[in-house]
Amino acid sequence: MTSRVSSEVVDWQPHAARLADELKAAGKLTAPEWRAAVAAVPRHHLVPAYYQHTPDGWVRIDTACETGLAAVYSNTVLLTAVENIGAGTVIRSSATQPGLMVRMLESLNLRDGQRVLEIGTGTGYNAALMSHRLGDDRVFSVDVEPDLVELARDRLAELGCHPTLVAGDGTAGLPEHAPFDAIIATCAVSAVPWAWVEQTRVGGVILIDLKTAVGAGSLVRLTRIASERAEGRFDPVYAAFMDLRHQAGAAPDQVRVRRDHSDARQRAARLDPRVPWNNLVVWFLASFVLGPGIAHGYTGPDTTRPPTAVWIATSDGSWAEITLTATDHGHAVAEGGPRRLWSILEDSHRQWLDLGEPGWGRFGLTVTPDRQTLWLDQPDSEHTWPVRS
Ligand SMILES: C[S@@+](CC[C@H](N)C(=O)[O-])C[C@H]1O[C@@H](n2cnc3c(N)ncnc32)[C@H](O)[C@@H]1O
Questions:
Q1: Are 203 and 347 in contact (CB under 8 A)?
Q2: Domain ranges of the chain
Q3: Is 66 exposed, middle or buried (0-12, 13-18, 19+ CB in 10 A)?
Q4: What's the confidence (pLDDT) of residue 177?
Q5: Distance from Cα 186 to the centre of ligand 1, integer Å
Q6: How far apart are CA 311 and CA 334, in angstroms?
Q7: Torsion 83-97-16-54 (CA) sign
Q8: What Gene Ontology terms for biological process does this UniProt record contain (predicted)?
Q9: Radius of gyration (Cα) for the chain, nearest Å?
């Protein structure tokens, strides 16, 4: 790939080649064709700047300088579209970690001549990698943010690369360009849009980040095994993408947290809260009971000192707070609102132990037009969970 703009003045090739070597050495990149793509795409051209949070606020860093080049050709996620909305900051887009990107691309098992749809164009870097591998006439990508699509289109065109980029809600796929041999989503969905299955040819692959609630879920690779059925397993290694949103510029839904301590039920828990708290598979199992609207965080005297407690809240007004330090009686648990949220997390932890402490790779998903089911070990398992679609 050549570039008429910044790539001419920046000696980026050694950086890109080094990134490819590093990903190979780390075991994230095994196929020569994807190594060639990483070495050939000037990532700094598609990510000319990124944002970093400092004590003084967000700082924009140009990637055509030494620090920026080192960052853009490293296995790092970079925040590329950050906006202040009201009192908060909204991350609209990021450039995914290259190691995660190539791991996902390799797992699609693409062959020459195949056509791919990406949901979440972002910077266009992934579209550039896929175009290098398949040819740009076989790459389609959609992003809900029209300005990002326009920037990606212009920057890709400057590299002589012209995949089909569309602005819109990718939930609907791109029916006018279907069928695809593979669909890859670089934003997380709470259930698989049936349109994505319908637009994948039978035998084709859909690779997505399924998140049934914040942080609850991971990458699942489905094969369309029949016209009315897609099925597959979760990747053994956890991954997380930003949530899909249906409108440009939309801020993520916030769960209203009400902690009315006057009706709190107090008890002590023996289990260290960090044990279920730090186990993402437990969160996943708990999300099927808690529902999608979950908020959680840490409580402490101030942000300069370590937290003293963790808390969860759900949109029905339930909340729980658990101290991180224990007395002789255990960790103090306070639970308020209609449901006992910490008990739900403790139950999910017990369930995970009873199931033999499964990792992500033991879970799988079956998707049909009217039902989506999570299963353990095999589709006809006695352990299944309904995914709300
Ligand atoms: C992690 S970024 C994508 C990174 C990108 N693949 C790259 O190579 O830079 C996720 C992207 O998903 C987009 N997105 C969120 N909701 C979407 C939707 N409904 N349809 C399409 N794209 C969406 C965001 O605007 C954001 O650009």
A1: no
A2: 6-234, 261-354
A3: exposed
A4: 98
A5: 6
A6: 9
A7: positive
A8: methylation
A9: 22
Two tokens, residue 64:
């055509």
The preferred substitution site among 38, 100, 143 for testing ligand 1, maximizing ligand atoms within 8 Å of CB, is 143
pLDDT of residue 86: 62
Spatial CA neighbour of 264 closest among 324, 338, 328:
338
Cβ < 6 Å from ligand 1: which residues? 92-96, 119-120, 122-123, 125-126, 142-145, 148, 169-171, 186-187, 241-242, 244-246
- CATH match of 261-354 with 3.30.160: yes
Q: How far is the CA of 92 from the centre of ligand 1 (A)?
A: 8
| Strand order, beta sheet including 49-54 | 57-62, 49-54, 78-85, 88-95
CA distance 253 to 330: 34
Helix (H, G, I), strand (E, B) or coil at 254: coil
Contact 128, 2 (CB under 8 A): no
Residue type for position 206: I
Are 209 and 222 within 8 A, CB to CB?
no
Report the 10 Å Cβ neighbour count for 251. 14
Q: Best of 47, 187, 244 to mutate for ligand 1, by most ligand atoms within 8 A of CB?
A: 187
Closest by alpha carbon to 81, among 167, 152, 171? 152
Cα 263 to ligand 1 centroid, rounded to whole Å: 42
Tell me how far CA of residue 368 lies from CA of 85, 101, 144, 195, 246, in angstroms: 38, 27, 26, 11, 22
The conformation of residue 42, written as its DSSP 8-state character, comes to -
Structure tokens at 332: 């103090």
> Within the chain, what is the greatest distance between any pair of CA atoms?
68
Tens of pLDDT, residues 26-49: 999 999 999 999 999 999 999 999
Q: pLDDT value at position 8?
A: 53
Q: Measure Cα distances from 372 to 22, 180, 280, 361 in Å.
A: 38, 21, 21, 18
**Is-contact 188 240, C-beta < 8 A?**
yes
N residues, the chain: 389
Q: Is 341 strand, coil or helix? A: helix
6-234 and 261-354: identical CATH topology: no
- pLDDT < 50 stretches in the chain: 1-7
Topology of domain 6-234 in CATH is Rossmann fold (3.40.50)
